[in-house]
Amino acid sequence: MNIWPLTAEPAQSVGGVPLTELAEGFGTPAYVLDEEHVRHRCREYRKALHPHRVAYAGKAFLCRAMARWVDEEGLWLDVCSAGELAVARSVGFPADRILLHGNGKTPEDLTAALEYGVGRIVVDSAGEVARLAALAGDRRHPQKVLLRVTPGVDPHVHRAVATGVEDQKFGLSLASGAAADVVRRVLLQPSLVLAGLHCHIGSQIGEPDGYETAARRLVAFMAEFGGLPELDLGGGHAVAYRPEEHGLDVPAFADRVETAVAEECSARGIPEPSLTVEPGRAIVAAAGVTLYRVIAVKHGARTFVVVDGGMSDNPRPVLYGSRYSIARVGHRTGAAETPVTVVGRHCEAGDVIAADVPLPADVRPGDLLAVPCTGAYHHSMASNYNQVARPPVVAVRGGRARPLVRRETPEDLMRRDVG
Ligand SMILES: Cc1ncc(COP(=O)(O)O)c(C=O)c1O
Ligand SMILES: N[C@@H](CCCC[NH3+])C(=O)O
């Protein structure tokens, strides 16, 4: 499966701009983002899910330009903090197409969301109902809310991202009765309207089965209350990080869940809810490529290729054991490929970008490397470990490059150090 952006010449250019030129112009490490690819994925999702809602999950990657693209393509936006909301607000993203998530929303998150008038707030705990109701009481219109329910579905993914199972911090358990209790609480609040139910069963889910089970369980639960207008099935749609992998087949997924919801509603005699999905990774992951410069090559028990980034720009291998492929950019020497382990510059032995990946045997300091499929949960999860400044995000389109987020500087980092 192709894991490079739509407009890429793999390992050579993206959006008509040579990767070597991008590295020279913007330095390394750098995140490159294919605007066409992002827009194309937004359109594919809207088409596959029509007439339902598609909300882009901003946690995967958000900046002002991304929010604009998502708005222009007619998607909703899922935010999960006042910070993400501020980005959306700064570009005038329509409030009625924003959903606020969070298992620990702060008073600032809730106030900002109510002030801006977001379309939906997804309630995640019993205590949140009274807090939100009190804050929403001052407004002219009641706030539409969804309830995040834990449907008890195991999507068979890494434990850290299996969020549909009972034993975890997100949502309200269906099995224990916590969800039913919170439905009753919401229905008692005149400042809140229960628009529907939500679930998000996990990440990197490649098959629709778990979604179908969750949808059926949530519809059955809705039927206890005579049905509800909306069912939000969250995100978590898998993408291929390496050529031998496959992502979720989105049209097939849409078919399966639509059929399941229709069957379940008809069996229970309730009206069909409209659906919402919240893909993040599946919109933006494959649009991104990270560029690194090789700093050192060390031969020993294995060959380590040390690059000028690492776990501060890509924490996913450390967090989830994620695997990537990697390519050398530019000169082709005809050297045979050999397995190497590409590691970062941080003070952690586990700071690996890609273990046991093939690279030309003559890889050497100064070479440029490109890692595809790094558009989601890279920039948004980047850190300043070892006081390393975060890379820029550069958008490419039609042969032109423009910075969306500039490279952090040592001054940026020092500015917060006020002691
Ligand atoms: C509630 C919710 N919606 C959507 C997403 C987006 O997930 P993904 O980027 O895997 O599609 C997440 C993150 O996993 C989430 O927690
Ligand atoms: N951040 C994760 C997954 C969790 C997404 C948010 N619920 C990743 O990189 O894969």
Secondary-structure blueprint:
Layout: E1 13-14, E2 17-18, H1 19-26, E3 30-34, H2 35-49, E4 53-57, H3 64-72, E5 76-79, H4 82-90, E6 98-100, H5 107-116, E7 120-123, H6 126-136, E8 143-150, E9 172-173, H7 178-187, E10 192-198, H8 209-223, E11 230-232, H9 250-268, E12 274-277, H10 281-284, E13 288-299, E14 303-307, H11 316-320, E15 327-329, E16 337-343, E17 352-360, E18 368-372, E19 393-397, E20 400-405, H12 410-415
Parallel strand pairs: 3-19, 4-5, 4-12, 5-6, 6-7, 7-8, 8-9, 8-10, 10-11, 11-12, 14-16
Antiparallel strand pairs: 1-2, 3-13, 13-14, 13-18, 15-18, 16-17, 19-20
Helix pairs in contact: 4-5, 5-6, 6-7, 8-9
Bound molecules: pyridoxal-5'-phosphate (PLP) and lysine.
Lysine (LYS) is lined by residues 59, 161, 203, 316, 377.
Describe, in plain words, how this protein is organized in 3D:
The chain has 419 residues and is of the alpha/beta class. The protein folds into two domains: 35-281, Alanine racemase (TIM Barrel), CATH 3.20.20; 286-415, Beta Barrel (Lyase, Ornithine Decarboxylase, Chain A, domain 1), CATH 2.40.37. Helix content is 29%, strand content 24%. It has twelve helices and 20 strands. Strands 3, 13, 14, 15, 16, 17, 18, 19 and 20 form a nine-stranded mixed β-sheet that branches. Helix 4 packs parallel to helix 5 (107-116) and helix 6 (126-136) runs parallel beside helix 7. The radius of gyration is 23 Å and the shape is globular. The N and C termini lie far apart (51 Å). The relative contact order is 0.17. Pyridoxal-5'-phosphate (PLP) is lined by residues 57, 59-60, 78, 101, 200, 203, 234-237, 278-282, 376. It catalyses: meso-2,6-diaminopimelate + H(+) = L-lysine + CO2. Substrate binds at residues 281, 316, 320, 348, 377. The active site is at residue 347. Belongs to the Orn/Lys/Arg decarboxylase class-II family. LysA subfamily. This is Diaminopimelate decarboxylase.
